[in-house]
Design a protein that fits this description.
disordered N terminus, alpha+beta, 2-enoyl-CoA Hydratase, Chain A, domain 1, 7-stranded antiparallel β-sheet
Length: about 400
Amino acid sequence: MAKRILLIIGTIFLLLFLIGSSFAGGYYFAKKTFKGTIPPFKGKPVSLDLVQEVIATIRHSYVEKVPEEKLILGAAKGVVEALNDPYSHYLSKTHYKYFQEETTGYFFGIGIQIGIKDHHVTVISPIEGTPADRAGIKAGDIILKVDGKSVAKLPLDSVVSMIRGEEGTFVTLDISRVGRKEPLTFKVKRAKIELPNVSSKMLDKDLGYVRIHTFSQETGQRLRDGVAKLIGEGAKGIILDLRNNPGGLLEEAVEVASVFIDKGVIVRVKSRSGKEEIYEAVSGIHGMEKPFDVPLVILINKGSASASEIVAGAVQDLKRGILVGEKTFGKGSVQNMVPLTNGAGLVLTTARYYTPNGKQIHGKGLKPDYLVKGGEELMGKKDKQLEKAKEVIKSLIRTSKKKG
């Protein structure tokens, strides 16, 4: 039985949380099981005969002896690669095992999320406070080499395996960055990385700030509790920071949006058949009588993807809040994880999702209401995006008071 997941983004979009594991963290199982059966193969027998013929020829004539199992596994992997879809992938037994272990909530690695973008291994975002973040690796960086070896023609899972490793060991990344002529080299020490979820604080006497790092289990509940606490402390408006958030569980995205949205469509999911599955706001979420109706501003950037884009898209379409920052990543596809009989796993794109008004996110991203370039805060300078968000939310609070 396959389970639906919303690939956080990445490559297999496996937003591979190079938190040290093979697909460290890019996956989160959704709360419901994908219902369906695998149909029987209906192709002409000659199709499979061709594969058998190639394998037989290699076994007989190749210059070196190759284990038959290796050839068969290579054929299976090649079938998926023929889709030319960076979000569909065959996971070996080892990688599938890593994935299962990663549901524990911590990993060993350097703390970056990577994916394939424009045919390059690209850093989606560093996880705040991790070795990669402290070293200065940024969203949008292109990984050229790992420990001196080029990754240009390597599959993503191989790159992940090269970066992950034991706690306390080092890995060296050669990186290309926009605006720099020469590659940058980072030697980063691997560590135990615990995935953050929701953090909150008061910025001013009447302004609350909440940051969602990933959409994992209980994110909706933790957001609700965080916002309730801030309002109890006097917050009249909320800034929700989704920058560098790679996404996560589809259901949690719906719950997060429902903390602020009373009713209506949150996201539309369409499969190949054209069938549309609609996810609406969840009423009475986590014991709430009604959603919080305080003014809302959401911070987004090019590292905001997947579930982050679902929330931002719903808020924008339903005119529930204002988006500030940069255009989002553009990850709008849904994947299923299918465990295979040999212990391996298959990640397969099965649908695309759209905003309530039907806007396509995949490959396009979302445009903010206020475009503000960011990144200065990483160099110790003022966070211009946050400052703009504060300006906008204060204006909304003043308008709200006049109406009240």
